[in-house]
Design brief:
Distance between the termini: 38 Å
Low-confidence stretches: 142-155, 161-170
Number of strands: 14
CATH class of the largest domain: Alpha Beta
Largest sheet: 8 strands, mixed
Strand content: 15-25%
Helix content: 10-25%
Radius of gyration: 20 Å
Structural class: alpha+beta
Shape: elongated
Number of helices: 8
Number of domains: 2
CATH topology of the largest domain: ph1033 like fold
Length: about 260
């Protein structure tokens, strides 16, 4: 997956509703964004984009997303009579302050790349982008968790109860990411791959199932994302939890074969 850097300078563009947008991204209701990518035309659908805050402190990476349209030309956002390219994307995370600071980005191992870009659309080398993505995943906690989905640092501890509007056992996005990195986005029960079935809209969509439900553990424990978690589609995830205790994935596969 290719990765690109898009810039935001609050001195030049006032993002009045960033707090509202961040809240919408966190609860899964944000409809997506569009951002200038400068003069870049080769920014494929499915690329990862990072938004960096420049020009005014605090500076650093504050958002990440996946592109869902190719660049299209339109009037320049800040220069009358000029044009620019814009790319559409779906947020994977949006913070009102940087999650990865400029101080970190200008130190090893990130200092091999020049972060103070003059215009959006600069491609990030794969080596740097892979490190950046791992750092973001280890810190990001705003991604919404679907009601039926149980998702789980390199120590994967979970279990402490948090009160939101209902009690929910603490979950960690790092374990989810490690599970998906190992097994991929194909459902372990019915074998559906949402990107194969629905195209780009289904890219990187899957639930993650705890083989032993968190609610049955009762206290914090160290989770093994390879042995304790499996990627499953929402339908199969719901069917697994139709029984108490939940069905095993192998049992559900047998039911599907019938």
């Amino acid at each position: 997956m290719r990765s690109f850097l898009l810039a935001w300078n609050p001195k030049k563009f006032h993002w009045a509703d960033i707090e509202e947008s961040a809240e919408q991204v966190a609860n899964g209701t944000h409809k997506g964004g569009q951002w200038s990518c400068g003069v870049r035309k080769d920014l494929p659908i499915g690329s990862r984009i990072y938004l960096i805050r420049l020009g005014q402190a605090p500076r650093g990476i504050f958002a990440v997303g996946i592109t869902n349209s190719e660049p299209e030309g339109a009037g320049h956002w800040g220069k009358r009579g000029e044009s620019a390219s814009y790319v559409g994307f779906k947020y994977r995370g949006l913070k009102t302050t940087p999650l990865i600071s400029m101080a970190e980005l200008t130190a090893p191992p990130y200092d091999e790349f020049g972060w103070s870009i003059q215009g959006s659309g600069v491609e990030i080398p794969a080596k740097i982008s892979n490190l950046l993505w791992k750092t973001w995943q280890s810190r990001e906690r705003s991604k919404p968790i679907l009601p039926a989905e149980e998702v789980a640092d390199q120590k994967y501890w979970e279990g402490s109860v948090t009160t939101i509007t209902v009690n929910a056992y603490e979950r960690n996005a790092g374990a989810r990411a490690a599970c998906i990195d190992h097994f991929g986005y194909r459902c372990s029960a019915c074998d559906i791959d949402f990107e194969e079935t629905y195209g780009s809209i289904g890219r990187e969509f899957i639930h993650v199932h705890h083989i032993t439900p968190i609610s049955k553990v009762g206290k914090s424990y160290e989770i093994d994302p390879i042995h304790d978690l499996r990627p499953v589609c929402p339908n199969c995830h719901s069917m697994l939890h139709r029984k108490e205790p939940p069905l095993s994935i192998s049992d559900l596969r047998r039911l599907l074969k019938k």
